[in-house]
Each structure stands twice: as structure tokens, then as C-alpha cells.
């Protein structure tokens, strides 16, 4: 079994609660669309299209989903409104599967990648540093040794916040303070990880630099210094996005994929929004696997993403 174990009942309840606003938004509208109708027809599909778009699934992804449902309705000749939510879930799960988003019931660090180096990127305000703290807690709870690197040195609050998270979780934080060289912090964090035989090193990076060129250069420099110790570092570049910003999260993902290779996504703050559909749209449009979702403020409310459980919570009437 992987380091995070199975999808527990408690996690499912937390997920249901975290996605409650999004789920209620979808089903209140869907219920109105199908009232008095027994068969899925063109009018209902038009309503469904609008519901998905206003839930921030995105226009392109919504069109894909609607086309798939239209094909099934045409093939089966008669699809009842009671079957619509089941078909909807099946098609979205299939879409997420095609986009390399895996069911992370079990997740482990590759044996030949130690320490496993994760570089975390994202604009200020998305919950990047908090996500790192919660991620460190996930790993530590699984018995892994973790080192954090406070390389977001352009913002004093980011450095101080990560140090506090380190104390809270009980993991070491490498920090040189504010306005210091981020690459030197990353260098020392990876060095510490090797010396202490850490399993995971997580590097925080600047939330915003003046231009894309600056950001690209800074991330490139951080990569180069880490590779002096670990040749293939970073093993993962995790982009943190704020799910409550809806379409703005799409824009952020687009901008970051232009300046560096993003290998995984963490989408936060889903508990405070009715825009949970953004997870589906971003995964589909950027073909980057969603790995973590934030569904609450508690330390344990950062969860490994499981597409089946997510879609079930989002599209099941409570």
C-alpha cells in the first residue's frame, strides 16, 4: 500500500463537505432543468451546457462533455432524466482519465528518487505556502522525513509563514531570510536533504516576479543549483492554483506553463466556492494531472486527488 493509504471514510466526508457549495449549485440548477421531463432532450442538454460553464468547467471542456452525452443519448435512443447524473459522472471520469489524472488511492516516492525534490510555484495569494505546509504534514504522517526550503525570499511573510509551518508540522526549514538569493536557499535545502537522508525536499519559490523572463531565469537558476546535488532535480514541479478564482486559475496555469514545465497541480480553496468544476476544466485543457486538492482549512484538508471520488462528490445530489 502506498504512503497515504486508502481513501478513508473521513476523507470522503471531508471531500463531500468541501465540495458542498459546488455540488448544491450544480444540482439546484439541474433539478430546475429536468423538472417535469422524463427524457433527456436537446433543451436539457442546452441547460446542462450552461450549468457546466457557469460552474467554471470551461467552454471547451463543457462542449466535449456535452458531445459525449449527445452520442450516448443518440445511441441509446431513450435516456431518462434519472440517468443523466450517472452518465454525466461516467463521461467526466473518462475525460479525467484521458488527461493522465490518476486515482491516487496509493502514492509512493520512487525508490530511486531520494530525496524526492518538489519545486512549488504559483502566484501570491493562492495558498502556496500553506499548501506546502500541509503537504509536508501529509508526507510526515506517512512516516517520511521532510525538509522545506524557504526560497520565496521576495516576500517576508512567505519565509516567516513557512518557518511557522515547519514548527507546526515538526520538520526542518532551510531559510536565509528575506531578500536573499533563492537559489542558495534551494542549494542548502537539497544539501540538507541529502545529509539528513530525507525522503522529500519541498522548495517554495517566489509567487511573483516583475516579468516572465525574470521568473523563468529565477526558476532556471534554482533548478541548476539543485542539480549539483541531485542530477534530475526537481522531480516534480507543482503548480498551486486557487480554485475559488474560477477562470482566473486558467489564466495562471497558462502563464506558468509558458515559463516552466509543470508536472502536477494542486487546486486549493474549493470549500469556499461553487466553482469546483474548475478542476475538471484545468485538467482537460492543460493535460497536467491534478495531484492534490484543498477542501478546508484544517491541516488534514489537503487531499490526494482521486477522480472517481471527486466526481462522485461533485455530481451526487446530497
UniProtKB/TrEMBL annotation:
Alphabetical list of Pfam families matching this protein: SRP54, SRP54_N
HAMAP family in the record: FtsY
Q: Does the keyword Coiled coil apply?
A: no
Q: Where in the cell is it found?
A: Cell membrane; Cytoplasm
Query: Per the record's keyword annotation, is Lipid metabolism included, yes or no?
Result: no
Stored CDD domains: FtsY
Q: Which reaction does it catalyse?
A: GTP + H2O = GDP + phosphate + H(+)
Q: What is this protein called?
A: Signal recognition particle receptor FtsY
Q: How does it assemble?
A: Part of the signal recognition particle protein translocation system, which is composed of SRP and FtsY.
SMART domains (alphabetical) = AAA, SRP54, SRP54_N
Residue numbers binding GTP: 122-129, 204-208, 268-271
Q: Which coarse location class applies to the principal site listed for this UniProt protein?
A: membrane
Stated membrane topology is: Peripheral membrane protein
Q: What class of enzyme is it?
A: hydrolase
Q: What does this protein do?
A: Involved in targeting and insertion of nascent membrane proteins into the cytoplasmic membrane. Acts as a receptor for the complex formed by the signal recognition particle (SRP) and the ribosome-nascent chain (RNC).
Per the record, the domain of life is Bacteria
Q: Which family does it belong to?
A: Belongs to the GTP-binding SRP family. FtsY subfamily.
Q: Where is the SRP54-type proteins GTP-binding domain?
A: 289-302
What keywords are assigned to this protein?
A: Cell membrane, Cytoplasm, GTP-binding, Hydrolase, Membrane, Nucleotide-binding, Receptor
Q: Give the signal sequence positions.
A: none
